[in-house]
Amino acid sequence: MTETSQRSRPLRVLAAMSGGVDSAVAAARAVEAGHDVTGVHLALSANPQSFRTGARGCCTIEDSRDARRAADVIGIPFYVWDLAERFREDVVEDFVAEYEAGRTPNPCLRCNEKIKFAALLDKALALGFDAVCTGHYAQVILREDGTRELHRASDMAKDQSYVLGVLDEKQLAHAMFPLGDTVTTKEEIRAEAERRGLAVAKKPDSHDICFIADGDTQGFLARRLGRAEGDIVDESGTKVGSHEGAYGFTIGQRKGLRIGTPAPDGKPRYVLDISPVDNTVTVGPAASLDVSALTAIKPRWCGTAPSGPGTYTAQLRAHGGETEVTAELVDGTLEVSFAAPVRGVAPGQAIVLYDGTRVVGSATIATTVRATTARRLNV
């Protein structure tokens, strides 16, 4: 049974309202389900801009005002909580440090782990709330033995369970996702918002990284880390170009390499490796991106940790597909082998394991093994 169908008594619910349509409809549905709901907008920027840039960014003054207007229409109390310093330390600084170390982080996972379901949930529980409600598309399912599981949303096209794979069972016990168990299109969610009189019905979704409103990640990192010129080399170690900062590249990147020397076969080259130690970026053919295995650290389990090797499906990025893997936890490190080689796998990314629709857990990729050379890349 789903979380919404099994909660028989009204709960005190804190609804995280970003100022967007999903969180507004989620809060409205929680009220409609009979819960005592209070809205809260998280102020995550010390210097919020007045207006977002199109569909980029969030947490602006405009967003907080939109959230307040939605709460007024729904008829619930509303507050703004300042978590800017916590967000800066746990999400923004972590993001910069990971890129500086040659890894590719996912700040949305870190925000869900450290802010929405750690800082926010801890504060909510301390104030006597029973649950935190968000507009994520995922499902919490209660088992007969009283434990809870995180599952994909009913609509795979909108599923966001990947960025929630860091939640443990204790956090799931206090999580509410009212949008996850309904098969509706985004257009239908917007139509529902309009029927409810919510002005955010036509507001564009937020994309990219919320704290980089202009979408220029490389520029953001350059301002934080400064320019650091280095070499771009091929797999033999021959210099084929130069760069102004290895942090500006990600594994699998093709565009923006600015390599003057063409490849011997005339085909495009891709970023294969990023070495912060010698500030070198290695490029090569697409086939060299194939990865057959990886190790991942800092595992977080949505329930009991698996024992022994198992067969699962894995998702490697927020909007990626599933791939079949075998995985085993060995001395705290997750060892994963792919049934077929995959591309674009980068240290720092999260791998989320699934058993059917159930989220087993998440871990941070530490090393990868190339299918073509069986050479382990460790950043």
UniProtKB/TrEMBL annotation:
Residues 219-284 form the tRNA-specific 2-thiouridylase MnmA-like central domain. It is found in: Cytoplasm. Its main location: cytoplasm. It comes from the Bacteria. The active site is at 111 (nucleophile), 210 (cysteine persulfide intermediate). Keywords: ATP-binding, Cytoplasm, Disulfide bond, Nucleotide-binding, RNA-binding, Transferase, tRNA processing, tRNA-binding. Its EC number is 2.8.1.13. The keyword Disulfide bond applies. GO terms for molecular function: tRNA-uridine 2-sulfurtransferase activity. InterPro entries: MnmA-like, MnmA-like_C, MnmA-like_central, MnmA-like_central_sf, Rossmann-like_a/b/a_fold. Gene3D superfamilies: Adenine nucleotide alpha hydrolases-like domains, HUPs, Translation factors. Catalyzes the 2-thiolation of uridine at the wobble position (U34) of tRNA, leading to the formation of s(2)U34. NCBIfam families: PRK00143.1, trmU. This is tRNA-specific 2-thiouridylase MnmA. It comes from Streptomyces bluensis.
